[in-house]
UniProtKB/TrEMBL annotation, chain A:
Annotated keywords: ATP-binding, Hydrolase, Nucleotide-binding, Transport
GO molecular function: ATP binding; ATP hydrolysis activity
Keyword Transport found: yes
Coiled coil residues, start to end: none
EC number of this enzyme: 3.6.3.27
Name of the protein in question: Phosphate-import ATP-binding protein PhnC
Domain ABC transporter: 42-282
UniProt key word Hydrolase: yes
A Pfam family: ABC_tran
Automatic annotation (TrEMBL), chain B:
Regions crossing the membrane: 27-48, 86-108, 134-157, 247-268
Annotated localization: Cell membrane
Superkingdom classification of source: Bacteria
InterPro entries: MetI-like, MetI-like_sf, PhnE/PtxC
Boundaries of every ABC transmembrane type-1 domain copy: 82-265
Keywords: Cell membrane, Membrane, Transmembrane, Transmembrane helix, Transport
Organism whose genome encodes this protein: Pelagimonas varians
GO-annotated cellular components: plasma membrane
Name of the protein described by the UniProt record: Phosphate-import permease protein PhnE
The keyword Ribonucleoprotein is assigned to this record: no
Name of one Pfam family that matches: BPD_transp_1
Family: Belongs to the binding-protein-dependent transport system permease family.
GO molecular function: ABC-type phosphonate transporter activity
Length: 283, 277
């Protein structure tokens, strides 16, 4: 009886905290020395994922506040990219719940899901541009979540206002002069900058980046990371990025989550960590 | 050197690996395969005696067919029939390719339709391919009457069966990365398909469409045999009336046009998508 009562009180409290009038606020310390007081944009509760009989990770829980940049690190095969896809709702979790921008992703679908995703951007390791289309068309595709339909399929059909928005995004990544070039005629670094333009063109609240500089040489990778974080810091965007580069995780992340042996083994502010702390995750 | 040389046992092991003895089931499989092949040859009336006696008959036909009929009036009539043949092929192939895109979208797994729809449409395409184009021509001759329109409809259906299947396979094999990036930003399925999947599959679409055009040209040359327009009727009449020189002219015209289309198609394929395929 007492258990039932306490569970009910807990549910009601959760409900109140999650109502639009009282946005969920991160008031407790999750991880090491981490205590910003900001609305929570992403929350994972006991998330697990298995592929067939193979467990990838389990009992993953964390809350990420608005404007926070979180580095997700871990060795190959620990499920960083899979976790990222679970957070975006691109693949279902096997257990637990994910809240993205205040919505539980496994409870919504269709238009509701698309509305949430329209506030999200993704930058992938392999750029994922459409090779035969122009750079401008590729960037315009980043607006499809907010403006679905044929007019945003190509730069030739797009309304002037969208073309200007896309050109501004290209200007911000320094590639406005390449707007009409085919995407497959770009270098790796340029392609990744176009992918960033596509991700930020819709002014997202949350950006996911899956090893954004893994396919680039160190210099181009550094340039891309500098650019990416300069752009998102200005807009108070919440960022979750995966990286094998320990220096990048410490330099660009406010917080570091370390995955190892299928669990979150490390959750701390970047400032409190050293390279040696992160190397332990790869042993 | 002698330390690294394989021992006698190792050599024996390597030699055994070269000649692997088939299992009893494999052996039975090989025997069954051979039996089926001989059974089919018997059913097809295969006869070495007939093969041996055919060269003189073929030489007799060649002697009667050569030189081909190059009478200007005949050439003019056959040329117009060949133009009609190409019109049937091009019109049928173009309409078929266009209609194949929505059909392929319904066939490809994980795009816009569920697995049941995928399977139903895929089965429909298998049925279309299972029926030969000449049979479709017969059906359309009954439905719309004699003439090139029946031939064009047969080409349309045949092209849908061919391109619908291959377009779907191409879209399923396309890099999923761009589609995932657009899905992650809230794009609808239709927008994702239009902006990522189809542009990503375009080189394969173009290649398949050019093959479909070649196939349509080859098919359209024989549809006339069943009254569905084109030059095929001239071939039939030539053989029926033992007018072998005219029949030979038709055969040579078909060969020239089909080879020409294949060359143009190959050139276009290289020009449009060469570096990417």
């Amino acid at each position: 009886m007492r258990d039932t009562l306490s569970s009910t009180i807990s549910s009601v409290t959760d409900l109140l905290l999650r109502s639009p009038a009282a946005p969920d606020v991160l008031t407790e310390q999750t991880g090491a020395a981490f205590a910003p007081v900001s609305p929570v944009e992403i929350e994972a509760r006991a998330v697990s994922k298995t592929f067939g009989a193979t467990p990838i990770f389990s009992d993953v829980s964390f809350r990420l506040a608005r404007g926070e940049a979180t580095a997700l690190v871990g060795a190959n095969g620990t499920g960083k990219s899979t976790l990222l896809r679970c957070l975006m709702g691109l693949i279902p979790t096997s257990g637990g719940t994910v809240h993205l921008l205040g919505q539980q992703t496994n409870e919504i679908a269709g238009r509701e899901m698309r509305n949430i995703r329209a506030q999200v951007g993704l930058v992938s390791q392999k750029h994922n541009l459409v090779p035969r289309l122009s750079v401008l068309s590729n960037v315009l595709h980043g607006l499809l979540g907010k403006h679905p339909g044929i007019r945003h399929w190509s730069h030739s059909l797009a309304p002037q206002s969208s073309r200007e928005t896309a050109m501004q995004a290209l200007e911000r990544v320094g590639l406005a002069d390449f707007a009409h070039r085919r995407a497959d005629r770009l270098s790796g670094g340029q392609s990744q900058r176009v992918a960033i333009a596509r991700a930020i063109v819709g002014a997202p609240k949350v950006l996911f980046a899956d090893e954004p500089c893994a396919s680039l040489d160190p210099s181009a990778g550094e340039d891309v990371m500098e650019l990416f974080f300069r752009l998102v810091r200005d807009e108070n965007v919440t960022v979750v990025f995966t990286s094998h580069n320990i220096e990048h995780a410490l330099k660009y992340g406010d917080r570091v989550l370390g995955l190892a042996q299928g669990r979150i083994q490390l959750d701390a502010t970047a400032a409190s960590l050293s390279s040696a702390d992160l190397r332990g995750l790869y042993d | 050197m002698t330390d690294t040389a394989p021992s006698r046992n190792e050599r024996t092991r390597f030699e055994l690996a070269r000649f692997e003895r088939p299992s009893a089931i494999s052996f039975l499989g090989y025997v069954l395969g051979l039996v089926i092949i001989f059974w089919c040859l018997a059913g097809a009336g295969f006869s070495l005696e007939k093969v041996a006696s055919s060269p003189p008959r073929f030489a007799d036909f060649a002697a009667r067919a050569f030189p081909p009929n190059l009478d200007p009036q005949v050439l003019s009539r056959l040329s117009w029939k060949m133009v009609e043949t190409l019109q049937i092929a091009v019109a049928g192939a173009v309409i078929g390719v266009i209609l194949s895109v929505p059909v392929a979208l319904l066939t490809a797994k994980g795009l816009i339709a569920g697995p049941w729809v995928n399977q139903i449409v895929r089965t429909g395409l298998s049925f279309i391919r299972a029926v030969p184009d000449i049979a479709w021509a017969l059906v359309f001759v009954v439905a719309v009457g004699l003439g090139p329109f029946a031939g064009m409809l047969a080409i349309v259906i045949d092209t849908i069966g061919f391109c619908g299947r291959f377009f779907a396979d191409d879209m399923e094999a396309t890099d999923k990365g761009p589609a995932e990036s657009l899905t992650a930003t809230g794009a609808r399925k239709l927008d994702v398909v239009a902006c990522a999947t189809i542009p990503g599959s375009l080189p394969a679409f173009i290649s398949t469409s050019l093959f479909a055009l070649e196939k349509a040209v080859r098919s359209s040359t024989i549809l006339g045999l069943v009254g569905a327009g084109g030059i095929g009727i001239e071939l039939k009449v030539g053989f029926d009336l033992f007018d072998y020189p005219t029949a030979m002219t038709v055969i040579l015209m078909i060969a020239v046009v089909v080879i020409g289309i294949e060359l143009v198609s190959g050139w276009a394929r290289t020009k449009i998508i060469g570096e990417q395929r």
